[in-house]
Amino acid sequence: MIEPKIIVDSQHHNAECPLWHPQQQCLYWTDIPEGKLFRYYPKTDVFSEIYYGEPVGGLTLQVDGSLLLFKTKGTIERWEEGKITTIVDEIPAETHTRFNDAIADPMGRVFSGTMATPDDQGRLYRIDTDGSIHVMLEGLLVPNGMGFSPDLKYFYFTDSDARTIYRFNYDKETGNITNGEHHIITLPGEGVPDGMTVDAEGYIWSARWDGGHLYRYTPNGSEVLRIPFPALKVTCMAFGGSDYNELYVSTAGGNDRSREGTGAGAIFHLQIDVKGVPEYTSRIFNY
Q1: Residue 162's Cα: distance from chain center in Å?
Q2: 153 and 178 in contact (C-beta within 8 Å)?
Protein backbone atom coordinates (compact mmCIF):
# COMPACT_ATOMS: atom_id res chain seq x y z
CA MET A 1 0.00 0.00 0.00
CA ILE A 2 1.41 3.36 -1.07
CA GLU A 3 0.88 5.81 1.78
CA PRO A 4 0.79 9.56 1.06
CA LYS A 5 2.68 11.53 3.72
CA ILE A 6 2.14 15.22 4.39
CA ILE A 7 5.41 17.17 4.11
CA VAL A 8 4.01 20.74 3.98
CA ASP A 9 0.84 21.20 5.98
CA SER A 10 0.06 24.76 5.00
CA GLN A 11 -3.64 24.48 4.07
CA HIS A 12 -3.34 26.06 0.61
CA HIS A 13 -6.53 27.23 -1.07
CA ASN A 14 -5.44 25.68 -4.37
CA ALA A 15 -1.89 24.35 -4.50
CA GLU A 16 -1.01 23.46 -8.09
CA CYS A 17 1.78 22.84 -10.59
CA PRO A 18 4.45 21.14 -8.44
CA LEU A 19 7.75 21.26 -10.32
CA TRP A 20 10.98 19.54 -9.34
CA HIS A 21 14.21 21.49 -9.84
CA PRO A 22 16.98 18.90 -10.33
CA GLN A 23 19.90 21.33 -9.98
CA GLN A 24 18.59 22.79 -6.73
CA GLN A 25 17.03 19.50 -5.53
CA CYS A 26 13.89 21.29 -4.45
CA LEU A 27 10.19 21.50 -5.25
CA TYR A 28 8.33 24.59 -6.46
CA TRP A 29 4.55 25.09 -6.58
CA THR A 30 1.89 27.79 -6.68
CA ASP A 31 -1.23 28.59 -4.67
CA ILE A 32 -3.18 30.13 -7.53
CA PRO A 33 -5.97 32.17 -5.88
CA GLU A 34 -3.60 33.42 -3.18
CA GLY A 35 -1.06 34.68 -5.72
CA LYS A 36 1.82 32.90 -3.99
CA LEU A 37 4.74 30.73 -5.06
CA PHE A 38 6.57 28.34 -2.72
CA ARG A 39 9.77 26.30 -2.52
CA TYR A 40 10.61 23.23 -0.43
CA TYR A 41 13.98 21.54 0.15
CA PRO A 42 13.40 17.89 1.19
CA LYS A 43 16.96 17.42 2.46
CA THR A 44 16.58 20.13 5.09
CA ASP A 45 12.77 20.09 5.35
CA VAL A 46 12.76 23.86 4.73
CA PHE A 47 9.64 25.42 3.21
CA SER A 48 9.27 29.09 2.25
CA GLU A 49 7.11 31.54 0.32
CA ILE A 50 9.22 33.07 -2.44
CA TYR A 51 6.71 35.19 -4.37
CA TYR A 52 3.51 37.10 -3.68
CA GLY A 53 1.57 39.04 -6.31
CA GLU A 54 -0.39 38.31 -9.43
CA PRO A 55 -1.75 34.73 -9.57
CA VAL A 56 0.56 32.19 -11.22
CA GLY A 57 -1.43 29.53 -13.07
CA GLY A 58 1.53 27.58 -14.44
CA LEU A 59 5.32 27.42 -14.40
CA THR A 60 8.19 25.81 -16.24
CA LEU A 61 11.88 25.44 -15.51
CA GLN A 62 14.13 27.35 -17.90
CA VAL A 63 17.33 25.71 -19.12
CA ASP A 64 19.33 28.33 -17.17
CA GLY A 65 17.65 27.31 -13.90
CA SER A 66 15.22 30.22 -13.66
CA LEU A 67 11.43 29.82 -13.75
CA LEU A 68 8.86 30.98 -16.27
CA LEU A 69 5.64 32.15 -14.63
CA PHE A 70 2.36 32.04 -16.57
CA LYS A 71 -0.02 34.56 -15.08
CA THR A 72 -3.16 36.59 -15.76
CA LYS A 73 -3.95 38.47 -19.02
CA GLY A 74 -1.55 36.25 -20.96
CA THR A 75 1.43 37.65 -19.06
CA ILE A 76 4.59 35.52 -18.99
CA GLU A 77 7.49 36.44 -16.73
CA ARG A 78 10.90 35.04 -15.85
CA TRP A 79 11.64 34.66 -12.14
CA GLU A 80 15.14 34.23 -10.75
CA GLU A 81 15.56 34.55 -6.98
CA GLY A 82 13.10 37.42 -6.75
CA LYS A 83 14.15 39.22 -9.93
CA ILE A 84 11.28 39.32 -12.43
CA THR A 85 11.65 40.02 -16.15
CA THR A 86 8.66 40.31 -18.47
CA ILE A 87 8.71 37.96 -21.47
CA VAL A 88 5.18 38.57 -22.79
CA ASP A 89 3.36 41.63 -21.45
CA GLU A 90 -0.11 40.32 -22.32
CA ILE A 91 -2.17 38.52 -24.95
CA PRO A 92 -5.06 40.79 -26.04
CA ALA A 93 -7.55 37.91 -26.26
CA GLU A 94 -6.78 36.87 -22.65
CA THR A 95 -7.12 40.15 -20.74
CA HIS A 96 -10.01 38.81 -18.64
CA THR A 97 -8.65 35.39 -17.76
CA ARG A 98 -5.44 33.60 -16.76
CA PHE A 99 -3.15 30.79 -17.79
CA ASN A 100 -3.77 27.38 -16.26
CA ASP A 101 -0.91 24.85 -16.21
CA ALA A 102 2.12 24.85 -18.51
CA ILE A 103 4.62 22.35 -19.87
CA ALA A 104 7.85 22.64 -21.85
CA ASP A 105 8.44 20.36 -24.82
CA PRO A 106 11.76 18.71 -25.83
CA MET A 107 12.74 21.66 -28.03
CA GLY A 108 12.15 24.26 -25.32
CA ARG A 109 8.75 25.51 -26.48
CA VAL A 110 5.95 25.84 -23.92
CA PHE A 111 2.30 24.75 -24.10
CA SER A 112 -0.09 26.56 -21.77
CA GLY A 113 -3.87 26.90 -21.69
CA THR A 114 -6.16 29.75 -20.67
CA MET A 115 -9.39 29.43 -18.72
CA ALA A 116 -12.77 29.97 -20.37
CA THR A 117 -14.87 32.90 -19.11
CA PRO A 118 -18.63 33.54 -19.39
CA ASP A 119 -17.84 35.64 -22.47
CA ASP A 120 -15.06 33.70 -24.16
CA GLN A 121 -13.63 30.25 -24.74
CA GLY A 122 -10.48 28.76 -23.33
CA ARG A 123 -7.48 28.17 -25.58
CA LEU A 124 -4.26 26.20 -25.69
CA TYR A 125 -1.23 28.21 -26.74
CA ARG A 126 2.25 27.23 -27.83
CA ILE A 127 5.00 29.74 -27.08
CA ASP A 128 8.04 29.14 -29.25
CA THR A 129 11.64 29.79 -28.27
CA ASP A 130 11.65 33.11 -30.11
CA GLY A 131 8.67 34.27 -28.04
CA SER A 132 6.15 33.91 -30.85
CA ILE A 133 2.68 32.78 -29.75
CA HIS A 134 0.48 30.26 -31.55
CA VAL A 135 -3.10 29.16 -30.84
CA MET A 136 -3.16 25.35 -30.90
CA LEU A 137 -6.70 24.58 -29.66
CA GLU A 138 -9.85 26.63 -29.14
CA GLY A 139 -13.26 26.05 -27.60
CA LEU A 140 -11.81 24.76 -24.32
CA LEU A 141 -13.32 25.01 -20.84
CA VAL A 142 -10.65 24.36 -18.20
CA PRO A 143 -7.37 23.41 -19.94
CA ASN A 144 -5.23 21.48 -17.52
CA GLY A 145 -2.55 18.77 -17.14
CA MET A 146 -0.33 17.86 -20.09
CA GLY A 147 2.39 15.36 -20.89
CA PHE A 148 4.37 13.56 -23.60
CA SER A 149 4.77 9.86 -24.27
CA PRO A 150 8.38 8.69 -23.79
CA ASP A 151 8.77 8.03 -27.53
CA LEU A 152 7.45 11.57 -28.23
CA LYS A 153 4.77 10.25 -30.57
CA TYR A 154 1.95 11.60 -28.42
CA PHE A 155 0.95 14.73 -26.55
CA TYR A 156 -1.61 14.35 -23.77
CA PHE A 157 -3.91 17.20 -22.81
CA THR A 158 -6.59 17.46 -20.12
CA ASP A 159 -9.77 19.56 -20.37
CA SER A 160 -11.15 19.25 -16.86
CA ASP A 161 -14.73 20.35 -17.45
CA ALA A 162 -14.95 17.97 -20.41
CA ARG A 163 -13.77 15.24 -17.96
CA THR A 164 -11.35 14.07 -20.63
CA ILE A 165 -7.65 13.48 -21.26
CA TYR A 166 -7.06 13.77 -25.00
CA ARG A 167 -4.24 12.22 -26.98
CA PHE A 168 -2.74 13.98 -30.01
CA ASN A 169 -0.08 13.03 -32.49
CA TYR A 170 2.94 15.21 -31.72
CA ASP A 171 5.61 16.46 -34.11
CA LYS A 172 8.79 17.25 -32.20
CA GLU A 173 10.34 19.24 -35.04
CA THR A 174 7.43 21.63 -35.60
CA GLY A 175 5.66 21.46 -32.24
CA ASN A 176 2.36 20.75 -33.98
CA ILE A 177 -0.34 18.51 -32.51
CA THR A 178 -2.88 16.72 -34.72
CA ASN A 179 -5.55 14.01 -34.74
CA GLY A 180 -6.87 14.54 -31.22
CA GLU A 181 -8.88 11.71 -29.72
CA HIS A 182 -10.60 10.98 -26.40
CA HIS A 183 -8.07 8.84 -24.53
CA ILE A 184 -9.30 8.74 -20.91
CA ILE A 185 -12.79 9.82 -19.84
CA THR A 186 -13.60 10.24 -16.15
CA LEU A 187 -16.85 8.67 -15.02
CA PRO A 188 -19.43 10.74 -13.12
CA GLY A 189 -18.92 10.46 -9.37
CA GLU A 190 -15.15 9.91 -9.65
CA GLY A 191 -14.13 13.55 -9.68
CA VAL A 192 -12.61 15.69 -12.41
CA PRO A 193 -9.22 15.08 -14.08
CA ASP A 194 -6.78 17.84 -13.09
CA GLY A 195 -2.98 17.86 -13.36
CA MET A 196 -1.09 14.95 -14.90
CA THR A 197 2.33 13.57 -15.70
CA VAL A 198 3.84 10.60 -17.55
CA ASP A 199 6.32 8.21 -15.92
CA ALA A 200 9.37 6.47 -17.41
CA GLU A 201 7.23 3.49 -18.47
CA GLY A 202 4.83 5.71 -20.38
CA TYR A 203 2.03 5.31 -17.85
CA ILE A 204 -0.22 8.32 -17.25
CA TRP A 205 -0.77 9.74 -13.76
CA SER A 206 -3.87 11.91 -13.27
CA ALA A 207 -4.92 13.88 -10.20
CA ARG A 208 -8.61 13.90 -9.42
CA TRP A 209 -10.25 17.16 -8.29
CA ASP A 210 -13.27 16.33 -6.09
CA GLY A 211 -12.30 12.68 -6.46
CA GLY A 212 -9.86 12.30 -3.56
CA HIS A 213 -7.48 10.05 -5.49
CA LEU A 214 -4.44 9.89 -7.72
CA TYR A 215 -4.85 7.53 -10.70
CA ARG A 216 -2.34 5.66 -12.84
CA TYR A 217 -3.21 4.42 -16.34
CA THR A 218 -1.43 2.26 -18.90
CA PRO A 219 -0.35 3.99 -22.13
CA ASN A 220 -3.55 2.69 -23.75
CA GLY A 221 -5.69 4.32 -21.07
CA SER A 222 -6.58 1.41 -18.78
CA GLU A 223 -6.63 2.11 -15.04
CA VAL A 224 -4.10 0.11 -13.02
CA LEU A 225 -3.89 2.00 -9.73
CA ARG A 226 -5.74 4.54 -7.62
CA ILE A 227 -4.26 6.01 -4.44
CA PRO A 228 -6.61 7.60 -1.88
CA PHE A 229 -5.80 10.92 -0.19
CA PRO A 230 -7.24 12.63 2.90
CA ALA A 231 -8.13 15.52 0.60
CA LEU A 232 -11.09 15.70 -1.76
CA LYS A 233 -9.31 17.93 -4.27
CA VAL A 234 -6.10 16.28 -5.52
CA THR A 235 -4.70 18.75 -8.03
CA CYS A 236 -1.35 17.73 -9.52
CA MET A 237 1.84 15.72 -9.09
CA ALA A 238 5.53 15.76 -10.01
CA PHE A 239 8.26 13.15 -9.89
CA GLY A 240 11.39 14.22 -8.07
CA GLY A 241 14.30 13.17 -5.92
CA SER A 242 17.76 12.21 -7.12
CA ASP A 243 16.41 9.05 -8.82
CA TYR A 244 12.96 10.39 -9.71
CA ASN A 245 11.29 7.64 -7.70
CA GLU A 246 9.56 10.06 -5.35
CA LEU A 247 6.20 11.63 -6.09
CA TYR A 248 5.10 15.02 -4.82
CA VAL A 249 1.38 15.74 -4.89
CA SER A 250 -0.48 19.04 -4.39
CA THR A 251 -4.03 19.42 -3.09
CA ALA A 252 -6.62 22.18 -2.61
CA GLY A 253 -9.38 23.09 -0.19
CA GLY A 254 -7.27 23.92 2.84
CA ASN A 255 -9.54 26.85 3.64
CA ASP A 256 -12.37 24.40 4.52
CA ARG A 257 -10.93 21.17 5.90
CA SER A 258 -14.17 20.22 7.64
CA ARG A 259 -15.65 19.62 4.19
CA GLU A 260 -12.59 19.01 2.02
CA GLY A 261 -10.66 16.53 4.19
CA THR A 262 -8.09 16.55 6.97
CA GLY A 263 -5.19 16.92 4.53
CA ALA A 264 -6.85 19.39 2.17
CA GLY A 265 -4.42 21.98 0.84
CA ALA A 266 -1.31 20.10 1.97
CA ILE A 267 1.66 18.97 -0.12
CA PHE A 268 2.19 15.20 0.00
CA HIS A 269 5.14 12.90 -0.64
CA LEU A 270 4.98 9.28 -1.82
CA GLN A 271 7.88 6.85 -2.08
CA ILE A 272 7.10 4.56 -5.01
CA ASP A 273 8.65 1.77 -7.08
CA VAL A 274 7.96 3.57 -10.35
CA LYS A 275 10.42 6.10 -11.76
CA GLY A 276 9.55 9.36 -13.40
CA VAL A 277 11.62 11.43 -15.81
CA PRO A 278 12.85 15.03 -15.58
CA GLU A 279 10.50 17.60 -17.06
CA TYR A 280 11.75 19.24 -20.24
CA THR A 281 13.19 22.73 -19.78
CA SER A 282 11.86 25.77 -21.58
CA ARG A 283 14.26 27.80 -23.71
CA ILE A 284 12.43 31.07 -24.21
CA PHE A 285 14.93 33.92 -24.19
CA ASN A 286 13.55 37.15 -25.65
CA TYR A 287 14.70 39.39 -22.80
Answers
A1: 17
A2: no
| pTM exceeding the 0.90 threshold for the entire prediction | yes
CA distances from residue 124 to 81, 105, 134, 196, 258 in whole angstroms, order as listed: 29, 14, 9, 16, 35
- pLDDT digit string, tens, across residues 78-89: 999 999 999 999
Domains of the chain: 5-271 (2.120.10.30)
What are the residue ranges of helices labelled H in 138-270?
A: 257-260
Q: Nearest-5° angle of CA 137, CA 89, CA 109?
A: 45
Catalogue the active-site residues. 194
Give pairs for 133-141: CB < 8 Å, separation 24+. 133/88, 133/91, 134/175, 136/111, 136/177, 137/113, 137/177, 137/180, 140/113, 140/114, 140/116, 141/116
Q: Give pLDDT tens digits for 199-225.
A: 999 999 999 999 999 999 999 999 999
Beta bridge partners of 267: 8, 250
Amino acid 104 reads A
Q: How far apart, in whole angstroms, are the C-alpha atoms of residue 281 and residue 180?
A: 24
Backbone angles phi, psi at 210, to 5 degrees: 60, 20
**Nearest-angstrom CA–CA distance, 36 and 59:** 12
Q: Tell me what pLDDT residue 285 has.
A: 81
User: What is the distance, to the nearest Å, from the Cα of residue 265 to the centroid of all Cα atoms in its chain?
Assistant: 16
CA distances to 20, 102, 129, 137 from 134, rounded to whole Å, are 27, 14, 12, 9
In DSSP terms, 207 is beta-bridged to 214
Average pLDDT over residues 168-174: 98
